[in-house]
Structures are given as structure tokens and as C-alpha cells.
Amino acid sequence: MTPRRIGMAGLLGGLLLLASCAETPPPEPEAPPPVSQPQPQPLPVPPRQSQPVPLPPQSSAPTLHCDQLLARQDGRDIRPVGGTLTVARRAFSLVYTGGLSGPALHVSAFPTLAEMLDKAGRSELWGSADEILIHDPDDLPLRDGAGLVEEPEQLDLYLEGMGEGYGAFFRVMTALDGEPAALLSAPRAGMGFAPENGRQVQKVRGLGGVAVEKTRFRQLYLTYFGTVRRAGPGNKGNFGSRALIRLAWGSCRLAFR
Fold first, then answer.
1. How far is CA 252 from the centre of its chain?
2. Helices H, strands E: what count in the chain?
3. Which residues, in sequence order, are bridge partners of residue 94?
4. Which of 26, 42, 135, 249 has CA 20 to 30 A from 80's CA?
5. Is residue 22 part of a domain?
6. How confident is the model at residue 244 (pLDDT cuts 50, 70, 90)?
7. Which residues, in sequence order, are CB contacts of 251 under 8 Å at separation 6+?
8. Given a cut of 50, is residue 59 above it in pLDDT?
9. Residue 62 domain-assigned?
10. Where residue 174 falls among pLDDT bands split at 50, 70, 90?
């Protein structure tokens, strides 16, 4: 090939190379890598407790003072154990051994009165003689709503209901050393006690109008009372059912098996 033809061939190859480069589009620029968003972190899991969570403290049961009451069933005496008299679910008797006159009982499914008396810390207190319930002699009525009247305003209202002069008389009487200043407000059953061999015995064939055999109580609370003395305005001897009476008390639990 002559030099002229070589030159023409080289020129033609260069033009073809330029044309191919012009037809091929330039590569697109690479997209920047996506920005990673921060992932939410899981909440920390509290460590598993190895010990159970303690329950809030419960109120303590009242201390029972059951030293002058026992039960009698099937010809044998049943004495309290830890303040509890345990009897079979059939007729029984309650025997008051305190030796005081006018024994009476307040019977409830709740220990409210026993708790109040235990907290008050007095072995005797005053009450009204007109709170003795009328009931069948061998049936013990169940009552709630008993308590102690201690606030001056409540005492005045309570005593005014008993009659004229009782408020002033009570304030003078309780100003003496050793006289309890609280009044018991509790309906009491006392019509079934009868003397027997130097003791006072209450036969129990029913509770709240239901035969003992048909009751479903697991336990009841008995607060018993004996009369220390009667008193009234001016110490006039006989004040009928309106008399104030000074009461010695005790408390028991009656359980059925």
C-alpha cells in the first residue's frame, strides 16, 4: 500500500472511532448510598423478680378476752382455746362464770365490737340498761352496728335520749378517778340466761331465728357482759330501763365444726 493510501486509511479509522464514541451515552453518575435511619431501640426488660411481691400489711385480729365464758354440749364443758369456743353444728349452751348479775351477749358475724373494746383497753365501761333485746330465750339474735360513744357531742346526744339530767350526771360521775368515760352502744341479748349450779346458763337452739343445724356460719363473735352496778341521776336507787349500768366485758369467737 502506498503512503497516500495508508494515510487515508488511518484518517478513515480515526473518524469511525470518533463516531462510535459520540453515539455511546456517557455513564450515569452513581446514586449516593441511602442514609440509614436510626432504628428504635427496644425498651429494657426489667429483671425477673426472684421473690414474690409482698402484700400490704393486714389489720391484726383483736385480742380475745374469753376467760369467763364456756360452751357446753353433749354433757361436757368446752373451754376456749385461744379465745375460741368450738362446737358441733347443733344445739349447745353458753355458761357465764363471771359471777355478776344480768349477764348478756352481743352476737355478730363481725369482730367490730371486740376490736373496739380491745383497743380501748378498759375492763369495764358504762352502758344503758334499755338496750336489752327481747328475744326467744333459746334463740340468740345477731346484731351489727355496736360501738363506743366517746366524743363529747355524741355523748351529749346519747344521754339526752335517756332523759333529763343524764348528761350532767354522767360528766360528774366520770370525773371521779377510775370511772370509764366511754359509753357502750350495743344491743344485748340477756333474756335466756338462767341460774344452774351457781352459774348462768344460756341454751342456744337458734341463731338469728334459724335453727343451729341449718345455719351456715363458720364462726361468730360473742361479746359478753356482766352488770357491776346500776346508777342514775342523784343515785335514787331505781331508774327503770333508763338506768346507766357499769359493765364488765369479755370477748370470744364461736366456731362450728
1. 18
2. 4, 17
3. 71, 202
4. 135
5. no
6. confident
7. 62, 64, 65, 66, 83, 113, 114, 117, 118, 221, 222, 223, 224
8. no
9. no
10. confident
Q: Contact at 8 Å (CB) between 220 and 205?
A: no
| Within a domain: 36 | no
Please report which confidence band the pLDDT of residue 93 belongs to, taking 50, 70 and 90 as the band edges. Answer: very high
Q: How far is residue 143's CA from residue 49's CA, in Å, rounded to a whole number?
A: 46
Report pLDDT for 151: 86
Q: Which residue is it, cell 341460774? A: 195
Using CA of residue 232, residue 236, residue 241, residue 246, what is the dihedral sign?
positive
The answer to the question of residue 233 being in a domain is yes
Q: Is the pLDDT of residue 40 over 80?
A: no
Whole-number pLDDT of residue 56? 38
The whole domain housing 211 covers 94-251
End-to-end CA distance of the chain: 134
Domain tally, the chain: 1
Give the phi and the psi of residue 161 in degrees, each rounded to 5: -70, -20
